[in-house]
Design brief:
The structure is a single chain. The protein is an alpha/beta fold. It has 3 domains: about 40-50 and about 395-485, Golgi alpha-mannosidase II (Immunoglobulin-like), CATH 2.60.40.1180; about 55-385, Alpha-Beta Barrel (TIM Barrel); about 500-600, Immunoglobulin-like (Sandwich), CATH 2.60.40.10. A hairpin with a 4-residue loop joins strand 12 and strand 13 (about 375). The longest helix has about 35 residues, at about 1-35. Strands 19-18-21-16-15-14-1-17-20 form a 9-stranded mixed sheet. An 8-stranded parallel beta barrel has the order 2-3-4-5-6-7-8-9. About 25% of the residues lie in helices and about 30% in strands.
């Protein structure tokens, strides 16, 4: 019995150990498989014969409050980055009506501008920042400057609800129209489009994005504003609306606007905001409305801020940034695939909003309120992957992925210039291979790869040449990628070469027919040539950068001090020079021999 018992114990132990080994081994195999197997080839088909919407551009929301009046140079680099590197061509510049704007009524008559009052108001710091920013963006040559009024209105005018009875409509119209009149006529600034009211459709009563009004009331105030602009000679100013918080309410507002064709005649686009996948019905609602020629603009979009931090004054941590970025990319791609023609990121840089009473942290460029330093976030690079390479005038063309769970794809083509841009995301955490076949887009030639991932920031992945009409492209793990036949131009070379004499030594005494003169050279791009000089005159022809040296016959000059110069240049025309002083000392009989000849 005891022996049987002991054997039983041993067998049970063996089974248990084996079970444990088996379990851990299976788990190990599973880890191996997850890490390696999904490296696969995804087929991508681009068919330029099927064409969709024409893109009008990409842009940003940017808060004028962040302009630094005392030191503009500390702030404008952010704008430069967004315009020059990110391709932001549509600027929705925010000015808030929440605080410090007609805090007391200018006078009792909403149909009489009290310019003494307004001239003073519009030179306060709040508006000086706005004017400076509009002027700077105009100087940058951006395509579209849109002025957007955000937040509630002064308390006496209704605060966060404009009274339903319309009793404050004319005062609201006077406040908005006086500002844009001052911008244009007094400040001589360019305003292409006015968005007079923001997210007035927010369902919650305590939303402070804009005064809450009904759809019918929205149409009524837009009618009054349009009439006022006509009356003061600004009938040409383009308007945009309704800038809905909920794109799913687009059809409701388009129906309401059916009664106001004179207002919609000042619209080129119909605008709604979106912080989720798909356009929320925006494109379809326009197509089904009385105004099918209005183009669908998503005037605010972003991935949702992690843990709703951004509006609560809590910066996003770096480890939260990647999901924030991939959501932002996926949402944008879905809007484009749904037919949206322009999309503006919320927002350009972290900034303080009156209506949130705090710094908010949605910026593609982060701001550290402690140090005052701006720095790029992942979302800046991710947005750049699209907006830098798809310009106004490019048309979305048919693009299909053989496995949308692995790789997403969208394609854009300009039939006039031949520019082709593909954007997508490797949705796996492994490298992937793409086999891309293109048709209906002419012969695009080589495509340049750019990628952003958790570890890459707009990294240049080199060029891929086609084999026939097929490109084979290797993607980095988890990357958002761009392929384009119009790569980013190499930056202009502004750095001079370096040049240093290696022979002869400084102060050397030389003689004879074979004095070796040599320099070492370098350049960030490449040295194009080196010209030697003797006492300021060219010594032979320009030497190649690969062997910048000469053998020089010193017997042709008089004994004594002489100077060599070596001037190195790069292909961009930057130059550098080095100087060497030497003494020539040849045997005196040379001159003695010749003296009698000279005297004859
Ligand atoms: Ca007033
Ligand atoms: Ca007035
Ligand atoms: Ca150079």
């Amino acid at each position: 019995m005891r022996r049987v018992f002991a054997i039983t114990i041993m067998v049970l132990l063996a089974i248990a150990v084996n079970q444990a080994l088996f379990t851990s081994h299976a788990a190990y195999i599973s880890e191996i498989e997850r890490a390696t197997t999904p490296q696969s080839t995804t087929s991508i088909q681009i068919n330029g014969a099927t064409r969709y919407q024409t893109i009008e551009g990409f842009g940003v929301n940017a808060n004028s409050r962040s302009w630094d009046l005392a030191n503009p140079g500390s702030f404008t680099p952010q704008l430069d980055t967004l315009v020059d590197d990110t391709g932001s061509s549509i600027w929705r510049v925010a000015i808030e009506s929440h605080e410090d704007w007609e805090v007391t009524n200018d006078n009792a008559d909403p149909n009489s501008f009290n310019w003494t009052y307004y001239n003073s108001l519009y030179e306060t710091e709040k508006f000086q920042k706005l004017w400076a920013m509009l002027d700077y963006l105009d100087g940058k040559g951006v395509n579209t400057i849109m002025l957007s009024v955000m937040g509630c209105v002064p308390q006496w005018m209704g605060g966060c609800t404009l009274p339903d009875d319309g009793s404050m409509d004319d005062e609201w119209v006077e406040m908005i129209s006086s500002m844009v009149y001052y911008a244009r006529h007094t400040k001589q600034l360019r305003v292409d489009i006015l968005s007079p009211i923001n997210e007035h459709d927010m369902p919650n009563a305590d939303s402070m994005e804009g005064p809450r009004i009904t759809p019918a009331h929205y149409v009524a105030i837009m009618e009054k504003l349009s009439a006022k602009l006509d009356a003061v000679g600004m009938g040409d100013l383009r308007l945009i609306g309704p800038d809905l918080a909920g794109a799913e309410r687009s059809a409701t507002y388009l129906s309401a606007l059916a009664a106001a064709p004179d207002v919609v005649a000042k619209f080129d686009h119909f605008a709604a905001h979106r912080y989720a996948l798909t356009d929320g019905g925006l494109v379809g609602a326009i197509a089904a409305s009385d105004y099918p020629n209005l183009t669908p603009w998503v005037t605010e979009y972003s991935g949702l801020c992690p843990n709703f931090k951004c509006d609560r004054g809590i910066p996003v941590t770096p480890d939260e940034n990647w999901t924030f970025a991939t959501d932002t990319f996926d949402y944008l791609q879905s809007y484009l695939n749904d037919g949206v023609t322009a999309a503006l990121v919320w927002e350009a840089y972290d900034s303080y909003y009156e209506h949130h009473q705090t710094y908010t942290y949605w910026g593609m460029i982060g701001y550290d309120t402690g140090t005052g330093i701006y720095s790029p976030t992942k979302r800046l690079y991710v947005v750049q992957q699209t907006s830098r390479f798809i310009e106004a005038g490019m048309q979305r063309v048919d693009a299909t992925s053989g496995d949308t769970n692995t790789v997403s794809i969208s394609a854009f083509h300009n039939a006039t210039t031949g520019k082709l841009t593909l954007v997508g995301r490797n949705k796996t955490s492994n490298p992937q291979t793409l086999s891309i076949t293109v048709g209906g887009v002419g012969t695009p030639g080589a495509l340049r790869l750019y990628q952003t991932s958790e570890s890459l920031n707009m990294a240049d992945g080199g060029s891929v040449s086609p084999s026939g009409s097929t490109y084979t492209v290797s993607l980095a793990a988890g990357s958002i990628f761009t392929l384009t036949n119009v790569p980013i131009p190499a930056p202009a070379d502004t750095r001079s070469p370096t040049v240093t004499f290696t022979a002869p030594a400084e102060g050397a005494t030389v003689s004879g027919a074979n004095v070796q003169i040599a320099v070492s050279v370098s350049d960030n791009v490449g040295v194009a040539g080196v010209q030697f000089k003797l006492d300021g005159a060219n010594l032979g022809v320009e030497q190649s950068a690969s062997s910048p040296s000469l053998s020089w016959n010193s017997t042709g000059v008089v004994n004594g001090g002489h100077t060599f110069d070596a001037i190195a240049r790069d292909a961009a025309g930057n130059t550098a020079s080095a100087t060497r002083s030497i003494t020539v000392s040849n045997a005196s009989y040379t001159s003695v021999q010749y003296l009698p000849l000279l005297e004859q």
